[in-house]
Each structure stands twice: as C-alpha cells, then as structure tokens.
Amino acid sequence: MRWSIHLGTLLGIPVRVHATFFLLLLWIAWRDLGRGLGTVGTLASVAFVIALFGCVALHEFGHALAARYYGIGTRDITLLPIGGLARLERMPQKPVQELVVALAGPAVNVVLAVLLFVQLQLFGPLLPASAGVMGIPFETALMFANIGLVLFNLIPAFPMDGGRVLRACMGFFVPFPKATRWAANVGKLIAAAFVLFGLIPIQPGAGTNPVLALIGFFVWWSASREAAFVQRIARLDGIDVRQAMLTQFPTLSPLHTLAHANQFFSLSPFRALPVSELDRPIGILTRDAFAQALQQQGADTAVRNVMTTRFQTASPEEPLSEALDRLRTNPGNLLPVVLGAGTWQGLLTPEGAGRFMR
Questions:
Q1: pLDDT, tens only, 271-282
Q2: φ and ψ at 323, to 5 degrees?
Q3: Burial, 61: exposed, middle or buried (Cβ in 10 Å; 0-12, 13-18, 19+)?
Q4: Mean per-residue pLDDT, 126-131
Q5: For 145-199, how does the pLDDT look when each residue is reduced to its tens digit (9 = 90+)?
Q6: What is the distance between the alpha carbons of residues 53 and 224, in angstroms, rounded to a whole number?
Q7: At 60, phi and psi to the nearest 5?
Q8: What pLDDT sits at residue 307?
Q9: Phi and psi based region of residue 163 (left: phi greater than 0; alpha: psi -120 to 50; beta: remaining)
Q10: 28 has pLDDT over 90
C-alpha cells in the first residue's frame, strides 16, 4: 500500500487508489487508440473502467459496513488494478458473521445491477450512444459488469468472497483452522487454473490474459499466507499477551523532531515507533510517514504533526491469538499493551511474537 493515494474519507473509512491503477487507465487508452476507436471511443472506455471501479469501491463498502455491524472496523479501502481491498481490523471467526461479511460485497453489486436494469426498463439509456462500450449502451455494459463481478467474486477461491463463503459453510461442521486449510487448498487449485488460462492462449491465435494470471498469483499467495497464519494462531490456545510482549523498547515524545526520530529509527529494527506522553501511548510514527515528512516538511518538524493517532491496543491478560489478529492491521505492525487506565505495560511486535512462537 506504499504507493496508494488518499482520495478521501467516506463513512469514516479512508479510500485510497493505488498508483498502478493509473497505469491500467493508460494501458486501456493506448489499447483502444491502437484499435482505431478514436478519442471519443477511448474516453468512453476509460470512463467505463472508472465507473466499474466505483462499483468495486461500493462492493468493498458492503464488506466494511457488514463488518462494522459486528464491531469490526476497517482501516481503509484501496482500489488496485485487479480489484478492491477492504482492510478489516480483524476477520470474523464465527461462521455466521464471516458468511454475512463475505456476501455483503456481492449483494451490493446485485443491487446496482437491479437498479441499472430498472433504469433501462423505465427510461432507456440516458447517456448518448457515443458513450457506449463496444457498441453496447454504457448503462447496459455497467449492468452486465456488475453481474460479472457477482459471479466472479463468488468463485470459491479463498480468500476471495466465494472462498470465504466456503470456509464459513465448512466452519459450521469443522474447527476454524481445518476449514481454513481446506478452503485455502481449494483456492490454490483455482488460482493455478487462473494462472494457466491467463498465460496460455485458449486457442491458436488468441491472446493471453495477464490480469487473470495476476489475480491467480495474488489468490495463491493470499491463501497460503492466511492459512499459515491461522494455523500458527491455533497453536497459541491458552497463551496471553504478557508472555510474548516486549517490556523494553524505544519510545518517542510528541515534541521530538524528525531529526531526533531519525536517530531512533537508525537503531531500531521496527517498522514504526510508538509515541508516548505521561506514560501512555498517544500515537505511532511509521517509517513511511517519517520518510515522507522528512523529505517534504524538513527535519525540524515535530513528531506530533506526523504520527497517526488511529491505532488499537491490547491488554496483557487477553489471548495472544486475538491480539495477533489486530497486530497485522495496526500501523507499523506495532500493538501497544496497556492496562485499563491506558498506561504502558509492553509492546507487541511481529519480531517479538515470532521469537516467542519459535
């Protein structure tokens, strides 16, 4: 997510677009100009892709709002050339909750397709014929695209929506780790098919589909990563945060300058540093934010102007498995450990947790 651009915040959720998305738009423009579609046809294709990814963003908001209903926050929503990604603070582990959250995204596309169908039946195409895509009216093409999003996302390739539906359904009958392993194996098989059909032409003279192959690689990597994470978490039953947290670690003051923070970062292996005031964590300064601010604002900038104050904490008595789920999505992969009054007790990091688990 380092190359993502912040577009704004909607319903309390930051929305970002990855810089490579603009490469997709440039490629589409170059392709259509090469096909002889002209300026108007090329602009219509680019506008259609932007509208389609608007539908993808609404799809991700469906996941995010369903998760919010169960008390699960969303860090942000990012649009990528291969689709959208809503980064939830944690994944629901109850089968019913995961089923609802997984289906909420495709449900949004169903609603959009129905609304477009009703509009076409009542009023016909509202946009001029020149805005059509490959001879199809703009709204009609967008309606079928939403139907395609529903069907594609419900393919049972974990961790796509259909794969999470599969895991949720299996979770009613088998333990969560086993359901994850089975769903991940199915997802890997489908991912391999994506790569195969994406790189090898279906018939002589036909082109390849690199986007489908890229999705296949992404699905394989994501399925392997999440399955391994869930299996590690399953081995931590009965272990609390206190056993894995660090008790000695560097902290910054909000009054420190970035020049001072630079000295800490040069000695620290962490991807971020906690910011402390009156023995309480008040923020997290990530290396990325530090480097960007150092270049744009200068070394005399105060840490409080750069740090993020949106972070979660853990209790020393809570199960380590639950805290690790939040650790993955906290800024800089740091999770302050505090008592009820908010005072420092320790710091949970991937390195410290990894050493403990080994």
A1: 899 999 998 999
A2: -65, -35
A3: buried
A4: 80
A5: 999 999 999 999 888 999 999 999 999 998 888 888 899 999 999 999 999 888 8
A6: 27
A7: -65, -35
A8: 94
A9: alpha
A10: no
Q: Examine the pLDDT at 206 and tell me if it is beyond 70.
A: no
Task: Write the secondary structure of the chain as one string of H (helix), E (strand) and C (coil).
Answer: CCCEEEEEEECCEEEEEECHHHHHHHHHHHHHHHCCCHHHHHHHHHHHHHHHHHHHHHHHHHHHHHHHHCCCCEEEEEEECCEEEEEECCCCCCHHHHHHHHHHHHHHHHHHHHHHHHHHHHHCCCCCHHHCECCECHHHHHHHHHHHHHHHHCCCCCCCHHHHHHHHHHHCCCCHHHHHHHHHHHHHHHHHHHHHHHHCCCCCCCCCCHHHHHHHHHHHHHHHHHHHHHHHHHCCCCCEHHHCCECCCCCECCCCEHHHHHHHHHHCCCCEEEEEECCEEEEEEEHHHHHHHHHHCCCCCEHHHCCECCCCCECCCCEHHHHHHHHCCCHHHCEEEECCCCCEEEEECHHHHHHHHC
* Over residues 205-234, mean pLDDT: 82
Whether pLDDT at 63 is above 80: yes
Q: Name residue 205's amino acid.
A: G
Give me the torsion for CA of 74, 104, 2, 231, rounded to 10°.
Answer: 80
**Average pLDDT of the chain, as a whole number:** 89
Confidence band of 203 (pLDDT split at 50, 70, 90)? low
Structure tokens, 147: 């139907």
Rg (CA), the chain: 23
Q: Which amino acid is at 147?
A: I
* 232 close to 246: Cβ distance less than 8 angstroms: no
Instruction: Scan for tokens 């001072």, then name that residue.
Output: 260
How far, in Å, are 13, 16, 78, 103 from residue 58 at the CA level?
12, 13, 11, 13
Exposure string over 3-40, b if 16+ CB within 10 A, otherwise e: ebeeeeeeeebbbbbbeebeebbeeebeebeeeebeee
Kindly give, in sequence order, each residue whose CB lies less than 8 Å from that of residue 255, ignoring residues fewer than 6 positions away.
302, 303, 304
CA separation for the pair 78, 5 (Å, rounded) = 9
How far is Cα 270 from Cα 351, in angstroms, rounded to an integer? 8
pLDDT above 80 (res 232)? no
